Amino acid sequence: MASWEVLGKPANILAMDRQSEFHERIGGDNLAALWVARRGMDLTRPASPAEPVIWPYDEIRCHLIEAGDLVSAGEAFRRVLVLENPAFKGRMQATNTLYAGLQLVLPGETAPCHRHSQTAIRFVIEGAGGYTAVDGERIPLSRGDFVITPNWTWHDHGNRGDAPVIWLDVLDTPLVGFLDTVFRENYPKPLHPIIRNEGETRARYGAGMIPVDFDPSQNPLPLTHYPYAESRAALTAMADSAPPDPTHGLKMQYTNPATGAPATPTMAAFLQHLPKGFIGQSYRSTESTVVCVAEGRGRSTIDGVSLEWGPGDVFVVPGWLRHRHEAEDEAVLFSVSDRPVQQALGLWREERHGGGANL
Ligand SMILES: [Fe+2]
């Protein structure tokens, strides 16, 4: 190169040329310059790509019933419509860490037995007569029941009633996939043999007692069924005796009865009562949340997006977005979040704001 060409370029342009050539060259060695990768990024706060989004139950139900005509539960293995956040199109994610779907089991159907390393949470939206069997014990499902399928437990589903049964599934699938810890196995027969009586597990672990010498390390999630009748009655009793929290109303967390820990190691579950006319204060936390409306009507404003909701609707509150809930009628919200993982790692944060401003 002639010296005048070099001398003809300003020094800063020459430096940029050298940098660009350097960045390109090291890319061939599987290296990247941190000062380039971080350029323009705001690293001062979380910025989840997940969007606030709602799935109205009436619409999903129509699609599910149509799917019931098109494919059997056995053929589909699980007849589920996945609730996909627009930010994760094609990736079967409601949030960055949570999968959500609505599952339909028609009268007389069974869904085959399998197990996997993801933990599943069910919340029954419609129907009676359904059941899920976990490691050979059938758990009857009624509307509003919260049921856990601990990871690596055999499970199949069925419907012994005469009407469709629909429930919300929430799994830690994206998180387990991120960690490269996905395992799955089909049971050699369609259904696991029944080896325990219905209600046996609830009797042993759900009556405020646990067996003497119980070892949580051998049975990390002993209780898998939290009937709505009991949870709702608890909310009613408390709502009558204490004023609601200005942000959450009356929000209770389901717990592992043996340890007091969240319902599962990766996902926490909550039931929340909002009195009629409640207008919650603005709030945000780092957890990402899937909410299902158990009762009532209202709206949630999330980062300026207003979502009107009613019974059976499911919506997403992404992490670190300011939001607040309002209830037209007396309302009950069921929700699932990844808070236990964040807390175990010392990462969880929350922020309360007075009033409804800054949304
Ligand atoms: Fe499963």
Describe this structure in words.
By secondary structure, the protein is an alpha+beta fold. It has one domain (53-352): Jelly Rolls (Sandwich). It has 9 helices and 22 strands. The longest helix has 17 residues, at 11-27. The protein is globular and about 85 Å long. The model has no long low-confidence stretch (mean pLDDT 94). It binds fe (ii) ion (FE2). Fe (ii) ion (FE2) binds at residues 114, 116, 120, 155.
Number of domains: 1
Q: Whole-number average pLDDT?
A: 94
β-strand number: 22
Cα Rg: 24 Å
Fraction in helix: 10-25%
- Beta-strand share of residues: 25-35%
Let me know the CATH homologous superfamily. Jelly Rolls
| Distinct ligands | fe (ii) ion
**Distance N to C terminus:** 58 Å
CATH topology: Jelly Rolls
